Amino acid sequence: MTVAAAEPNAASATATLATKPFSRFEWMIAGRYMRARRRNGGVSAIAGFSFAGIALGVAALIIVMSVMNGFRTELLSRILGVNGHIVVNWSDTPMTDYADVATRISAVPGVASAMPLVQGEVLATGPTGGRAPALVKGVRGEDLYKLKPISDNVLLGTLEGFDTGGGLAVGSRLAQALGLALGDTITLLAPEGDQTPLGVVPRRKSYPVTAIFEIGLSDFDKSYIYMPFAEAQLFFNEEERAQSIEVFVADPDRVRDLQAPVEQAAARPNYTYTWQQVNESFFSALQVERNVMFIILTLIVLVATLNIISGLFMLVKDKGRDIAILRTMGATRATILRVFMITGVSIGTLGTIAGLVLGILFCVNIENLRQFFSWISGRSLFDPEFYFLSRLPAEVDVSEVVSVVAVTIGLSFVATLFPAWRASKLDPVEALRYE
């Protein structure tokens, strides 16, 4: 009776351990293996380092990619907000019919606006004697209001009556460099001057400052001056004509598709170039840097996942007796394989989730963190003079975050395969021989 009763119990135990894939039993065993114990503290330490490495690697990937996305978006929005997406230049006779040309171009589907322009480089002098080179752009008041980075970011003064006021709108950093305040006089010196018996004399003229703006792009804020279009025609000896027409389109990424229709709508000999052609090397370098940073930081994540392999090998060696007992009680090789896969993938998944949360929190509060660390260190950690922008941008791209998470979990899964396979191949007899 005793033997007969024991046989059903053994069969029952065997049936119990031969569980369904990824059952509660397998998760329970994997969970026990991941807990820290005095006897396998080294294994737990390696698991902790793997978790921390993956979390920091994922967070670094998300932060760096988000900051670079923010840089590109901010630079594009500000550069394309004040400079034409397509520039139309005359190639035969002077563009005296600029108003009609601008009207025809504005009617092209996909074109938002067309702005006649007169511009030139000058030497600007402030009331305190400070001097700085500047770029003067002569535009019509109605067109200046359409430049949202300018019209929406006037710090002092107003753009009301810009065409008739005779005053200039000056960038904030240029005003600071020249010691200019609202209402002060700025003197401009242009090399293209008046013809005299003694030769060409540089043109010099003073204007009141009626507005000070801040685009947020330091390179523009320290060099741009906007002048009424009619006054710019006189100052640069371009009476009754425009030097070019800047065209703004609804979708800057499709600017090449509109280049030919714009040239045809001008209805006069002309040649054009786009913002992509002007800034091609800059944004190409930015994209290359972005791709290289992704590869480098992915290698950091890869190194962290390799720690999972060493940790699992140590765990398999440490748990050899337990594996043998489970096998003798009826656990299949597949069960042992899944137990160790759950252990490794759980470390990778939890580390990925922690890194995801850390990275997003960092991106959301990145400007506050920058100011905090600047205050702690006593120095500027993001100098606008070198980084173009006046603030540190970050833009989280959902598709990139999903890719980072998928790659990290995939690497964690691959890292567990070989140690888990070795655990499943462990011979119970060899493991228990010297016990």
Which structural category fits the helices and strands? alpha+beta
From the alpha carbons, calculate the radius of gyration and give it in angstroms: 34 Å
> How many domain units?
2
On the 0-100 scale, what is the average pLDDT?
Answer: 81
Q: Cα distance, first to last residue?
A: 32 Å
What is the count of β-strands? 10
H/E series, N to C? HHHEHEEHHEHEHEEHEHEHEHHHHHHHH
What proportion strand? 15-25%
User: Approximately how much helix is present in the residues?
Assistant: 55-70%
Low-confidence stretches: 1-16
Count the DSSP helices: 19
What assembly state would you assign to the polypeptide chains in this entry?
single chain
Protein described:
With 435 residues, the chain is α+β, with helices and mostly antiparallel strands. It has helices at residues 2-17, 24-34, 41-82, 98-106, 141-146, 148-151, 162-165, 172-178, 218-221, 229-235, 255-266, 275-278, 280-318, 320-328, 333-364, 366-377, 384-387, 398-424, 428-432; strands spanning 86-90, 111-125, 131-139, 154-157, 168-171, 185-196, 199-213, 224-228, 244-249, 270-274. The chain is built from 19 helices and ten strands. A six-stranded mixed barrel has the order 2-3-8-5-7-6. A hairpin with a 2-residue loop joins β6 and β7 (199-213). α2 (24-34) packs across α15 (333-364), α13 runs parallel beside α18 and α15 (333-364) runs antiparallel to α18 (398-424).
